[in-house]
Every structure is written in structure tokens, then in C-alpha cells.
Amino acid sequence: MAFLPAEVIKSKRNGKELSPEEIETFIAGYSQGHIPDYQMSALLMAIFFKGMSPTETLSLTRAMLHSGEVIDFSFVPGFKVDKHSTGGVGDKTSLILGPIVAAAGVPVPMISGRGLGHTGGTLDKLESIPGFNTQLDLKTFKDFIAKNKICFIGQTKEICPADKKIYALRDVTATVESLPLICASIMSKKLAEGIDGLVLDVKCGSGAFMKTPDDAEKLAQQLMDIAKGYGKKVIALITNMDQPLGRFAGNSLEIEECLEIMSGKTHLSPAGHDLYLDTRELSLWLSAHMLHMAGRTPSAQAGYDLAANILASGQALKKFEELCCIHGGNLSALPRPKHKLSALAETSGFIQNMNTESIGVAGILIRAGRAQTTDLIEPTAGIEFHAKIGDPIRSGDPIFTLFGDHPELLQAARPLLSSAVNISLQKPKTPSLIFKTLE
Ligand code: URA
Asked: Which residues contact 208 (CB under 8 A, 6 or more apart)?
């Protein structure tokens, strides 16, 4: 019988379980251009509302994985390991942990994504470095992993083309926060990389796709089940995304933060809080688990100590500079924003909580992220955070500073930022950075 995409959409809309053949044919048709965006968008929305069974999620992952090549890295000696985050605001750890782990001699092949919904993407951050090319072909990717132990690329025509198209479509059709869609997107990319092990950073909180610990753990478990089903070693850290990570969110500003951290710098807030602390600690712990999983250290604690040494000795920075060089990026030409505008505290007290998703949406308004698939990102657009949850703040002090090249966009986004933070007289508990580790 002829394959009718609308019948598959109708089945999912009505809550039926799709067969592996229906999923495979739909995904193949879409990635080859026979099924249009509007039908894929409708299916994504149906999946968003009706969910998928574990069997359907596995079929979707497999279909997306086999829309392209699966890399064979057996010619590179050693355990190949990667990390993947489920997405957050100011989440830049890949740019620090990749160089740390590669500097320790462990190959890190990374297939990353662009900004998704209100969250940032590693590729957009790297592309804010003038000349940095993330669109390398497969042969070049393999050569760099063999020689330099590190390389970052995106989904391409060859690797996970289905995720490349679906990811961009989900970004602008409000279909991101779906457990099966997140699972298939992440795992298809990670399984295509030819890795032996994976460390997952599953974000939880107001700036994550999973807002509650229960949902985050459910996502972590499903991601781990798929990885184990494919014979990969896997571990998941459930981490805090109730506030942005680090000092900046925004592409070139996040590169700047990483360079400062890899140069051993700190940046104290007016309250005396090192605004780089959370980025640095999370990068070190994720590196620690990668190094331990790869057999480079006997324990995660020893992995942490090794990672901290590599960071402090400047080897991570050297590796990052080498990474920029092989990708054609010119770090010394990192652009600077032309304008800035601060959002001031309206009352005195302590930062109680933040609506971190709204902060991410403010980032889209100033063009640090995309509202439509065809939108161009402005590399210098971003937000600086002057205070973290629990910090004291006085009326009139800056809480955020917006950066970018268009002052009118900064003005337009400021009210959203101001309303994203709650200040109260009671000092809240300092939030944990890592909630749980699932092995
Ligand atoms: N990261 C991805 O690669 N895909 C998602 O869907 C979410 C986070």
C-alpha cells in the first residue's frame, strides 16, 4: 500500500502506537525531502502531546541514527568518550571539558547542536569565533580525532541528517520539550559518533526542558537505557538549571568566559561570589566522569584531581587554542559587543529564584538565539549575570547587563529580564549544583 504521511500523523494524533516501519519511512521521507516541513511539524506536535512508548522512541532513534553514517573509530586507539547536555542557559561546559579530556590523551569526538528553544548551542558559540568552521567533512573529522584527540562538528549531510532538519524545525515549532524527541535527537547524534562511552548532563529546573527532578530522572533513565542497549558505557548527572550557568549567556561572551576560566581567572560579583565557580566545577566533574569512564583514572575523584591539574596548568587552554586552529578559528579576533544596557534591582533583599527560561527567551529577543530557522545569530549578543540565587542585592544595583549591536533590541528585552528574577528579604539556601549521579 502507498505510504500516506497524513495517516501516520492521524494515528499518532489519536494516541496509537506507530510501527517501526511507519517511523522509519516517515523519517527517511523527511530527511530525503519527500515529506515537507508542514507534515513533519504536525507529526512532531502529535508526538509532543501523545508521547511515544519506549519501543517507538527506540525506533525513532534508530531511524534518525541510520539517516546517515555511523562513524567507525576503531582505527583510533583508546576509549572514545563524549558528554551531552540536555540543554540550558549559559551551559558552556563542552568548551572546557572537551579540551581537558583531550589534553589527558582521551579522544573526544563531539557532534553538537545549535541553540534549541530558549537554550544555547555549542555550534553557535564556536561559530562566534571568526573563521571557526563546524561544517567539516567526515574524513577531516576522523583525521583530527586521530591526531588532535578533539574535534567539534554538527549534524551534517553524512551524519544524522534527520536530526539536523528535525532539530531546526523543533526549535521554531514549540516541540522541543518532549521526552521521546529529546531522547532520539541526543542519542542518534551520540551513537553516530562511534564513541565507547557517554556522560550525560541532564538539566533540571526553570531553565531546563525538564522542570522537575522526576521528569529529569525519567529522561536520564531513557537516555541511559538506549545507550546501554547499544552497548555503550553511560552515566548521567542530574544538574541544576534553576539559574543560568556562570557569568554569561550568549555566544562570544560564553567563549570569553571559557577563556578566562581556562586562564585560571575568577570573577567576583559585588556580593563576593565567584561567577565562574559553577561553570568551572561542573566542567571539572563532567571531565572527571569522562576520564574515569575511559579508564584514565581509578576513580571519579582522581579524575577530578587530574582535570583540575590540567586546567590549572594551562594545558586545557592550549588544547582549546589548538582546537580553534584546526577549525580555522581566529581567537584574537573574537568580536566585542557595541552596546550594553543594565537591568537594575527594584528592591533590596536576596535573589530568591529566577525564571531561567524567560532569561533564555530574552536572549532570543536580542538575537543570541533564533526565532525562525532562517534567523542569523548575532555573535556578540548576550546577557551578563551579576548575582546568583542567595546573593544579597540592593535596590538600584545591576542584576543583569544586556549586550549586543542593536540598542533597540536591548531596550525591548529588558522588561522580560527584569521580571525573570524574584527578590525577597529571606535568604534562600544556596542551591546544589549536582543533584544526583545515576550509574
Ligand atoms: N540536545 C539535543 O541534541 N537535542 C535535544 O532535543 C535536546 C538537547
From this structure: 86, 87, 88, 216, 241, 356
d(CA 23, CA 31): 12
Q: Which residues pair with 393 in a beta bridge?
A: 349
pTM reported for the whole predicted model: 0.94
Task: List Cα–Cα distances, 236 to 223, 281, 299, in angstroms.
Answer: 9, 16, 16
Nearest to 389 by CA among 353, 336, 337, 427: 353
Amino acid at 227: A
Q: What is the mean pLDDT of residues 239-248?
A: 98
Task: Give the distance, in angstroms, between the CA of residue 42 and the centroid of all CA atoms in the same chain.
Answer: 25
Q: How many CB atoms are located within 10 Å of the residue 2 CB?
A: 4
Of 364, 367, 358, nearest to 417 (Cα)?
358
Q: Which residues contact 219 (CB under 8 A, 6 or more apart)?
A: 86, 179, 182, 183, 202, 210
3-class secondary-structure state, position 399:
strand
Residue nearest to atom 5 of ligand 1 (CA): 182
DSSP summary character for residue 333: G
- Of ligand 1's listed atoms, the one at least distance from the Cα of 182 is 6
pLDDT value at 373 more than 80: no
**What is the whole-number distance in angstroms between the Cα of residue 87 and the centre of ligand 1?**
7
| Ligand 1 atom nearest to CA at 113 | 3
Say what the pLDDT of residue 157 is.
84
| Residue closest by Cα to atom 3 of ligand 1 | 186
* Span from the CA of 154 to the centroid of ligand 1 (angstroms): 12
Nearest atom of ligand 1 to the alpha carbon of 112 = 3
In contact, 320 and 149? CB cutoff 8 Å: no
* Stretch (H or E) spanning 364: helix 356-365
Instruction: Work out the average pLDDT over 368-394.
Output: 93
- What residue ranges line ligand 1, CB within 6 angstroms? 86-87, 113, 116, 181-182, 185-186, 189
- Cα–Cα distance measured from residue 136 to residue 124, given in angstroms and rounded to the nearest whole number: 15
DSSP code of residue 345: -
Catalytic residues: 84, 163, 170, 185, 189
CA of 396 to the centre of ligand 1 (A): 38
Percent of the chain with pLDDT over 90: 92
DSSP string across 129-173? STT------HHHHHHHHHHHSEEEEE--SSS-HHHHHHHHHHHHT
Q: Which residues of 14-34 are buried (b: 16+ CB within 10 A; e: fewer)?
A: eeeebeeebbbbbbbbbbeee
